[in-house]
Design a protein that fits this description.
Distance between the termini: 35 Å
Structural class: alpha/beta
Number of strands: 8
Shape: globular
Strand order of the largest sheet: 3-2-1-4-5-6-7-8
Number of domains: 1
CATH class: Alpha Beta
Radius of gyration: 17 Å
Order of helices and strands: EHEHEHEHHEHEHHEEH
Length: 274
């Protein structure tokens, strides 16, 4: 895909791998919509991109830990743009961000499930008219190799909470949604794929978990950009990638009944069922 003039929304793009992807795509001529919670950090990215001679990105400040904040972001993008060529759902929090204890979102949902999964679920649905207008368009969900099956009797992990499990569950939910949504929108000319960009990239999230980085942000960012614009993946959808290569996710991702349960729950939790 020639990115010149294409409009791309990247959530969580003022830091880490999202920031790298925003810079890469701006350099390729894309009209980049960046998102984050820190306006000062966003300004440094905007200045870097402009200094390099590329078009100024548009910054959207939003807190995706709440449904209201997520809907506000979607509403602002819809207000400002008539089409969206690519949506990269990258915003997320790791297993230890904010501490090891269980945390809840503004809506009372387990925080990692809310930020890492539900926010992207909402944005993909609400921004669908813009993606449809830009078809052929793409959705890229930044997931992980770290995946834990969802216990539908305790999705919010109120018993035996563990941050790593919560994170891994949210990432598997992203992949399950990827497979379902790909089927739902295939007739609209929209592809949906998920990926594990790279293992333990040198990001704030990884360092916050006390983990020694193993990969560079550039390695992970290049894998994301591959799904954004690679010609070899233009017709592929509903897949999970490990870096540049197709891979298999946790078996629950391919359980049709589990995906139906997750979809029903997600629609109820986000208020999108009506």
């Amino acid at each position: 895909m020639d990115m010149r003039g294409k409009t791309v929304l990247i959530t969580g793009s003022t830091d880490g791998v999202g920031r790298y992807v925003a810079s890469r795509l701006a350099a390729e001529g894309a009209k980049v919509l960046i998102h984050g919670r820190d306006a000062a950090r966003a300004k440094t990215l905007i200045d870097e991109i402009e200094k390099a001679g590329h078009a100024e990105p548009t910054f959207y400040k939003a807190d995706l830990s709440s449904m209201a904040g997520t809907q506000e972001l979607a509403g602002a993008v819809i207000r400002d743009h008539r089409r969206l060529d690519v949506f990269v759902s990258n915003a997320g929090i790791g297993s230890q961000n904010g501490g090891p204890q269980r945390q809840e979102s503004a809506d009372g949902h387990e925080l990692r499930f809310a930020v890492n999964y539900l926010s992207g679920f909402v944005l993909a649905h609400v921004l669908l008219p813009l993606l449809k207008s830009a078809a052929p368009s793409r959705i890229v969900n930044v997931a992980s190799l770290g995946q834990h099956p969802i216990d539908f009797d305790d999705v919010m992990i109120t018993k035996g909470y563990n941050g790593s499990r919560a994170y891994a569950q949210s990432k598997l939910a992203q992949i399950m949604f990827t497979i379902d949504f790909a089927e739902e929108v295939k007739s609209l000319g929209i592809t949906v794929n998920a990926l594990h960009p790279a293992t333990y990239m040198n990001t704030t999230m990884v360092r916050a978990g006390g983990i020694t980085p193993m990969s560079t942000v550039e390695q992970g960012g290049d894998a994301i950009v591959h799904l954004v614009s690679g010609d070899d993946v233009a017709g592929k959808s509903g897949l999970f990638f490990n870096g540049m290569n197709e891979a298999r996710a946790n078996p629950q991702a391919y359980d049709i009944e589990a995906r139906k349960r997750l979809r029903a729950l997600s629609l109820k939790l986000t208020g999108l069922s009506g």
